[in-house]
Amino acid sequence: LYHGDPPSMIKSLHSLMNAIRTIFTISRYYNSSEKATGLLLKITNQMLIACKVHLTNHGRERVWEQSRKEVICKIADCVNLKDAFREAYKYTKDKMARVPGGDIYILPTFVSVKKCF
């Protein structure tokens, strides 16, 4: 997540969510909704940072200085990342709901990003 752009992050979301599910299931420390939510919050914050970096070409250009077509493509990449995250989260949450005590709650940080666009 630290070195990827939104399109490359999409490819790793399902394996990342599977790893989180495994951690939540096995770990004593992360075996609570509060700890799992904190971990997911850190992940969504990193995705937001990656979207900002993607939109600004690593802070070198403002959005308004780029071509409209390029910015629209980059915004679409970020929205696709949000949608893929939501899908992977929902899939993992549904899978965990079948396990007793496996429900996770996440703060709606990344879900509300679409309103920014």
Automatic annotation (TrEMBL):
One of its GO terms (biological process) is microtubule-based movement. It comes from the Eukaryota. Residues 2-98 form the Dynein heavy chain tail domain. One of its GO terms (cellular component) is dynein complex. InterPro entries: DHC, Dynein_heavy_tail. Coiled coil: none annotated. One of its GO terms (molecular function) is dynein light intermediate chain binding. PANTHER family: AAA+ ATPASE DOMAIN-CONTAINING PROTEIN, MALE FERTILITY FACTOR KL5. Belongs to the dynein heavy chain family. This is Dynein heavy chain tail domain-containing protein. It comes from Helobdella robusta. The gene is 20216636.
